[in-house]
Amino acid sequence: MARITAGVGSSHVPLLGVAVDQGKTRDDYFGPIFAGYDWTRQWETEAKPDVVILVYNDHASAFDANIIPTFAIGCGERYKSADEGWGPRPVPDVEGHADMAWHIAQSLILDDFDMTIINEMDVDHGLTVPLSMMFGQPEKWPVKVVPVAVNVVTYPVPSGNRCWALGEAIARAVESFPEDLNVQIWGTGGMSHQLQGPRAGLLNREWDNKFLDLLSSDTDAARYIPHIEYLRETGSEGIEMVMWLIMRGALGEKVKTLHRHYHIPCSNTAIGHIVLEPAI
Ligand code: DHB
Ligand code: FE
Predict the structure, then answer these.
(1) Rounded-to-integer distance, Cα 162 and Cα 164, Å
(2) How close is the Cα of 116 to the center of ligand 1, in Å?
(3) Which residue's CA is the nearest one to ligand 1's atom 5?
(4) What CATH number does the domain containing 93 carry?
(5) Is 261 a catalytic residue?
(6) Distance from the CA of 87 to the center of ligand 2, in angstroms?
(7) Can you give the residue ranges of the Extradiol ring-cleavage dioxygenase class III enzyme subunit B domain (predicted)?
(8) pLDDT for residue 250
(9) Going by C-beta distance under 8 Å and a sequence separation of 6 or more, which residues neighbour residue 133?
(10) Average pLDDT, whole number, for the chain?
């Protein structure tokens, strides 16, 4: 039986991909950011997941205003790194787990989540930067990935409550997959940031840390944070944090925090990172 053994939350700032690709991860600017991921890179070599269900958002790379799936699942065999304007990142292709992804898609749809099924797409920084943060620069990614893409770019975006419930449904889907697989679920994006308009550059250390507290507490208070609070307190792009709730919802009632990291600033963003384990 497949089982979810851990959840990882992480920002997915494109500049961190540039730092990895250009060998700058230990310079004065990036050093303190990457230092907060050292623990996780080591832990991942011991945790050895087979599959990562990687919750992220596409930033107008695979989708655009012509098609806006609220929740989509990648059921393909492999995904290439998207060209976001500077050429594709020099990272390995991302290998999917088509059998498991189709199983999850079926389970979710029969569980009343109307997923969009994607067989072919390129994946942008939202997916490849977290892989680089957690695994460095291997010749081949050490995990298979089931991408779960969430629309957090064009309103209406899904509520935190709906995201949490999707996480619960993903956990049910994984538990009913017969193969004996070690599965992690990652929620990416955030933390506070606003990339445009008069409030561009907005960061909110206090609110972000309160959110991290809530994630690692045994309550489900975070699932009911309304959109307007994310917007007001964390800027227009802070809404990416609802994707962390899919990860948290999949871990069950109680969790144990294994690792936590927060750093300001990185590019236009606050960096947040947490590693959680389901607790009995
Ligand atoms: C930045 C952060 C993001 O999450 C993103 O998707 C794009 C840009 C930034 O801080 O520059
Ligand atoms: Fe983003």
Answers:
(1) 5
(2) 25
(3) 13
(4) 3.40.830.10
(5) no
(6) 18
(7) 9-271
(8) 98
(9) 10, 16, 20, 34, 37, 40, 273
(10) 97
